[in-house]
Amino acid sequence: MTSVSPASQQAGRDAEFDAAGDPIGLFGRWFDDAKANEAELPEAMALATCGSDDMPDVRMVLLKSFDERGFVFYTNLGSQKAVELDQNNRAALCFHWKSLTRQVRIQGRAEAVSEDEADVYFATRSKQSQIGAWASKQSLPLQGRFDLEAQVAKYTAKYALKKVDRPPFWSGYRVAPLRIEFWRQRSFRLHDRRVFLRDNISQPDWKIERLYP
């Protein structure tokens, strides 16, 4: 069997990176690589928001699905992130995969997923996680751990023998991208940066630019 040299593998990756005209397809290939190589939570992404006070905020969330429409995560609708997105739907995401020395940055507008979409995803969660969604008043002050455990016990008893319904205050957002930047580490800090841009989310074609490192 003929082996492929590291140089040839790199050349192939370079050619793919240079030729990519579809950012969602390129993201999908990079995400597959991350799932195969990243030891912990390849789906983890930083979510940046900015509410009515103009103070930026960032936290880690988990990507649950993506397609041409955007990148989806789920949360309590009373959480700080949800409140800020309702005030200002502009959002940014950042994936950083250390094992691959790659990064993807996304800017766009967040929109609520449909009720049906939220129901379908909620049904895939473990029962403990479903109960946790009912028990947590996310981002509100908590007097002590016992108060949270009491809520968990309450909903564990309520749903002991039946299906857990999705809370009306729990759903998801889809960040529809307007800008996607792919970054690859290269020697001597001469990194590759490739940006896909469009003016609105209904625009099928992307403008493509390269940036200095």
What does this structure look like?
With 213 residues, the protein is of the alpha+beta class. It has a single domain, classed as Electron Transport, Fmn-binding Protein, Chain A (Pnp Oxidase, Chain A). It is built from 6 helices and 9 strands; from the N terminus they run H-H-E-E-E-E-H-E-E-H-H-H-E-E-E. Strands 1, 2, 3, 4, 5, 6, 7, 8 and 9 form a 9-stranded antiparallel β-sheet that branches. Helix 5 crosses helix 6. It is elongated and about 55 Å long. The two termini are 39 Å apart. About 3% of the residues have low confidence.
User: In the CATH hierarchy, what is the architecture at level 2?
Assistant: Roll
How far the N terminus sits from the C terminus, by CA atoms, comes to 39 Å
Classify the secondary structure makeup into a structural class. alpha+beta
Low-confidence stretches: 4-9
Q: Percent of residues in beta strands?
A: 25-35%
Can you give me a brief rundown of this structure?
By secondary structure, the protein is of the alpha+beta class.
